[in-house]
Amino acid sequence: MTRYLALREPSANHVYTRAAGRLALAELALLCPEVTDVAPVELAGIQYLGFDADEVPERIGHHSALLALYALEDGDLLRPVAVERPELLDDDLVTIPKYPGKTNEQFTRLMLNLALAAVRRPPGRRRVLDPMCGRGTTLTTAVRLGHEAVGVDRDPKALDATAAFLKTYLRRGRVKHTADVTPIRRDGRRIGRRLDVALTPPTLQERISLALLEGDGRRSDELCGRRGFDAVVLDAPYGVVHGARRGSDAAARERSPASLLAESVPVWAAQLHRGGALAIAWNTHTMSREDLTTTVREAGLEPLDSGPWLDLAHRVDSSIHRDLLVAVRPVD
Ligand SMILES: C[S@@+](CC[C@H](N)C(=O)[O-])C[C@H]1O[C@@H](n2cnc3c(N)ncnc32)[C@H](O)[C@@H]1O
Q1: Is the CB of residue 153 below 6 angstroms from any atom belonging to ligand 1?
Q2: CA 138 to ligand 1 center in whole angstroms
Q3: Buried (b) or exposed (e) across 44-58, using 16+ Cβ within 10 A?
Q4: Residue 248, Cβ neighbours under 10 Å: how many?
Q5: Beta carbons of 198 and 218 less than 8 angstroms apart
Q6: In which residue ranges of the chain is CATH 3.40.50.150 found?
Q7: Separation CA 45–CA 42 (nearest Å)
Q8: Does the beta carbon of 280 sit less than 6 angstroms from any atom of ligand 1?
Q9: Is 163 in the pocket of ligand 1 (CB under 6 A)?
């Protein structure tokens, strides 16, 4: 048995402020269930994540905040340990786009990691849906890891900006690809547009697809199929847009993240394969964890609601306290 010390990316402190260490420990325990004695360790004034394992954990290279890994020897000597990283494309695919309302890249990776860790299906390439995908942080994060990604957002500017960015990025990076924006038609009528990108990462001789559809994520089944996803991953609207009290009650309800989630969770749950996982990040000021857990359970999913799964909440700013709930569609 070896004691390992993992050094966190310093940027994790900016993302989660004081909760960075706690979230990193929870993610480690959930991603690498084979490790034991997960605990913070301080050595010469530097904080590490400590854990015991027989060998380098298989999925440690996926951790959203891992900078470096060491084996602890002779009490206080650190031996660097090589870590296999799963990314097929550079991180600037995800970090270059900057816009208001973007979900932090590191947190997006954590959400995706934990959703995929919860999936109870044979290993392989996953199909991931983000039904409120904005400009596609979840989608590009999934594609970097070799998964297929489908997103929906009702904001037409999200599609335009994502199409423009991906076309330029892939052309400049000389990544083999196709990228097309085409109308979505129903009953002969044009109801929106879709962006379809297929790319071949230089280190993989297979095409990976990314699609972003313009439309209402509450009815993502009508746009991208009633079944067929291994994971549904989203950072739900925070409900902090000013002026939400103005207008009719119906309009206010439409904007309420709680009613939006109550309405949408059954749709998203049904889009999952059996053994697939749903991960929702949301502002707990708009809906309690208890209420969302009930909604998810009523939609036929099993919420993962014990141990480190309960240790993912953190403050974003004075009006947003974010949590992450992961639930699995039972296999039978
Ligand atoms: C917190 S943001 C997600 C940001 C995204 N993860 C990113 O990094 O770009 C929530 C998104 O939900 C979208 N949204 C809100 N209501 C929606 C609906 N009914 N259907 C589809 N998208 C919706 C908003 O346009 C916004 O892009």
Answers
A1: yes
A2: 11
A3: eeebbbbbebeebbe
A4: 8
A5: no
A6: 92-328
A7: 6
A8: no
A9: no
Cα 154 to ligand 1 centre (Å): 7
102 lines ligand 1 (CB under 6 A): yes
What residue's CA is closest to ligand 1, atom 2?
237
CB distance 137 to ligand 1 below 6 Å: yes
Residue 99 C-alpha to ligand 1 middle, in angstroms? 13
Q: Ligand 1 centre from 182 Cα, in Å?
A: 21
5 φ, ψ (degrees, to nearest 5): -125, 125
Ligand 1 pocket member 135 (CB < 6 A): yes
Q: Which two tokens stand for residue 200?
A: 């071949």
Closest CA to 110 of 200, 17, 212, 20: 20
Whether pTM > 0.85 for this model: the answer is yes
Q: What is the DSSP string of 104-157?
A: PHHHHHHHHHHHHHH--S-SS--EEEETT-TTTHHHHHHHHTT-EEEEEES-HH
Instruction: Give 144 Cα–ligand 1 centroid separation in angstroms.
Output: 21
Q: What is the dihedral of CA 109, 22, 15, 8, to 10 degrees?
A: -70
Per-residue pLDDT of the chain (332 residues; tens, 9 = 90+): 999 999 998 876 676 767 888 999 999 999 999 999 999 999 999 999 999 999 999 999 999 999 999 999 988 899 999 999 999 999 999 999 999 999 999 999 999 999 999 999 999 999 999 999 999 999 999 999 999 999 999 999 999 999 999 999 999 999 999 999 999 998 899 999 999 999 999 888 899 999 999 999 999 999 998 889 999 999 999 987 644 444 455 454 445 888 999 999 999 999 999 999 999 999 999 999 999 999 999 999 999 999 999 999 999 988 999 999 999 999 98
Q: Is the CB of 261 under 6 A from ligand 1?
A: no
Helix (H, G, I), strand (E, B) or coil at 326: strand
Domain 92-328: homologous superfamily in CATH:
Vaccinia Virus protein VP39 (3.40.50.150)
